[in-house]
Every structure is written in C-alpha cells, then in structure tokens.
C-alpha cells in the first residue's frame, strides 16, 4: 500500500516511516511525482494551507495523501510570525535573517512575556474525498540569543523550560519524540492505519 506525503523533505518521510513502522506501507514523496507543480499556500491558517497542499497532491497522486503546515507563534507578537514563519524576514527564505528579525521585534520584551509555541497542522485526504486533520504543538519561550547548533529554523532561540534546553540542543531522537510535527504525525498514525484497511 502506498501513501503520499506532500513534501520534498526526506527527513519528514523518514519520520513518518518510523512512526508507522509498517512494512506493508510505502511512503512516497512529491519527488515521486516528477510532473507535480507545487501550489500556492494561500490559506490564512496552518490547517488551510495543509489542506491546500494535500488536496492538490492527492489529485495528482490518486492515493491517500498527507500534508503538513507548521510554524512559530509568539504571544507578544499577536501570534506572528505564524503562517509566515519561513519567510518572516522576506524572500528568499533565510533562517538567520528570520531569527534576527524575531529578536529585533522582541527587544525589550521581558522573559515572562516571551512565551511561544511551534504548531503543526497535518491534513489527510483520501481519493474518495474523505478529509481529516490532526494537530500538534509544543510550548516554549523565545530567548534573547541563540543556543545550540542542531535543528533548523527558530530552534536555537526556542527554549523548552521543562528540559532546560533549546530545540537546537536536542538530539534528533529527542526532537522526533516531542516536536509539534511528531505530535501531529503520531495522532495521524491510528487514523491512517484504519484508513488503510478500508482501501
């Protein structure tokens, strides 16, 4: 049985393979659809963008399709950068520039008001029109400087108080257990397993 994950990111494919842990299910990515044209993410929420990507990829691949959209929400910035997380500092997308803009925008904001979360919405679309959504989030706080060299994006400034580490200080295994995307994917696994039996 084949499932399409609407991404070019091999890491996401491996993450879903590990969570499913089912040799009967083959996870394909957009690189397996050579003529696929990526669609514009024109939604106003993570969920809307996830569904836009999943519907387009499902129409092209004609199989059960998953697509996620995720980003950072900072309370002191009224939820920004939100759906614009990857291009917060403008185009072209650049992690360092995004972090610089975030830290500049939060200058003078006290530690207790620098609360934030990574949020992920994962859409699941079936060829027969069934649609599902799972979500995951992880709470933290934005530091005033970078700590750690792992991860990507905002990980070096996203601090996890319970672990006393930034996301950039976590091992890959640790991150794959508690990240917003891992939590959304984990919720999708039983749903996906049930859907497989009906197709």
TrEMBL record:
Cofactor binding note: Binds 1 Mg(2+) ion per subunit.
SUPFAM superfamilies: ITPase-like
Keywords assigned: Hydrolase, Magnesium, Metal-binding, Nucleotide metabolism, Nucleotide-binding
Cofactor: Mg(2+)
Entry binding sites for substrate: 7-12, 70, 152-155, 175, 180-181
Entry function: Pyrophosphatase that catalyzes the hydrolysis of nucleoside triphosphates to their monophosphate derivatives, with a high preference for the non-canonical purine nucleotides XTP (xanthosine triphosphate), dITP (deoxyinosine triphosphate) and ITP. Seems to function as a house-cleaning enzyme that removes non-canonical purine nucleotides from the nucleotide pool, thus preventing their incorporation into DNA/RNA and avoiding chromosomal lesions.
UniProt protein name: dITP/XTP pyrophosphatase
Species, as recorded: Dehalobacter restrictus (strain DSM 9455 / PER-K23)
């Amino acid at each position: 049985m084949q499932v399409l994950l609407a991404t070019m990111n091999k890491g996401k494919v491996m993450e879903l393979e590990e969570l499913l842990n089912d040799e009967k299910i083959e996870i394909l990515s957009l690189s397996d659809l050579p003529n696929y044209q990526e669609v514009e993410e024109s939604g106003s929420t993570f969920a809307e963008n996830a569904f836009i990507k999943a519907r387009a990829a499902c129409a092209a691949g004609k199989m059960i399709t998953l697509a996620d959209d995720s980003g950072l929400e900072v309370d002191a910035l009224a939820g920004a950068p939100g759906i614009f997380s990857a291009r917060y500092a403008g185009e072209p997308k650049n992690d360092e520039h995004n972090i610089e803009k975030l830290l500049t925008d939060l200058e003078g904001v006290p530690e207790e008001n620098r609360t934030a979360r990574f949020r992920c919405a994962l859409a699941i679309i079936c060829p027969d029109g069934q649609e599902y959504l799972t979500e995951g989030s992880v709470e933290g706080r934005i530091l005033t400087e970078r700590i750690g060299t792992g991860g990507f994006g905002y990980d070096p400034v996203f601090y996890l108080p319970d672990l006393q580490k930034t996301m950039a200080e976590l091992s890959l295994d640790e991150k794959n257990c508690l990240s917003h995307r891992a939590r959304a994917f984990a919720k999708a696994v039983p749903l996906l397993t049930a859907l497989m039996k009906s197709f």
